[in-house]
Every structure is written in C-alpha cells, then in structure tokens.
Design goal:
Layout lengths: L2 E5 L2 E4 L4 E8 L7 E7 L6 E7 L4 E3 L7 E6 L4 E6 L8 E9 L2 E4 L3 E6 L1
Parallel strand pairs: 2-11
Antiparallel strand pairs: 1-3, 3-8, 4-5, 4-9, 5-6, 7-8, 9-10, 9-11
Length: 115
C-alpha cells in the first residue's frame, strides 16, 4: 500500500509562489507516474501536471509557463513549483501516484491565492 503525503500549501498573494511536495512511502515501484490534480469549490477535479519516472512531463494549458513539476526518485518525492499564482489557482491540490495498475491519492493540501 502506497502512502502519499502532500505539503507546502498555504495562503499567498496573487503573483506569488508556492512549492508543493508529495512524498511517497510503502510499496514503491520504480515504474510509476506522479500527477498533481486540483479541485476548486463547486468544480470538478482537474489535472494540473504529470511526470513519469523517466522525467517526461505534461501540463494543463492553464498552468503552462507558470508551474513546473519535478521529482526526486531517490526520495520518492514529487514537487510542484507554482509561480505567478492567480486567484483562479485557488483549490485543494492532490497528489496521485499510478503504478502497477493501481492508483493512490494523497489527502490534499489547500492553496489559496488572494487578489
């Protein structure tokens, strides 16, 4: 059973930056993909960014050029560097790990961007 713990959320003014972390433990497989999703109040959960164990990345159009996903395989940790934050980035951000046909979710971390 893989356990994911997110951290790094908080309150920031528009134009500011935050860095989210997602640490995985237990039942780690080397071939995996880690993905950040977010869910704003009253909206569906949406994919923000994803990264494979080989470092291939993909981003939602809304965050391209502002957010950067990265990972440290030795630490089993993924990161989401968020720059030039906008009020519309306000959401609960969730980390998801997929490996060996299974999907695991973290508990989420709140990001609030004030205007």
């Amino acid at each position: 059973q893989v356990h994911l713990v997110e951290s790094g959320g908080g309150l920031v003014q528009a134009g500011g930056s935050l860095r989210l972390s997602c640490a995985a433990s237990g039942g780690i497989r080397s071939i995996n993909t880690m993905t950040w999703y977010r869910q704003a109040p009253g909206k569906q959960r949406e994919l923000v960014a994803t990264i494979t164990n080989g470092g291939n990345t993909d981003y939602a159009d809304s965050v391209k050029g502002r957010f950067t996903i990265s990972r440290d395989n030795a630490k089993n940790t993924a990161y989401l560097q968020m720059n030039s934050l906008k009020p519309e980035d306000t959401a609960v951000y969730y980390c998801m790990r997929s490996q060996a046909g299974f999907v695991y979710w973290g508990q989420g971390t709140q990001v609030t961007v004030s205007s």
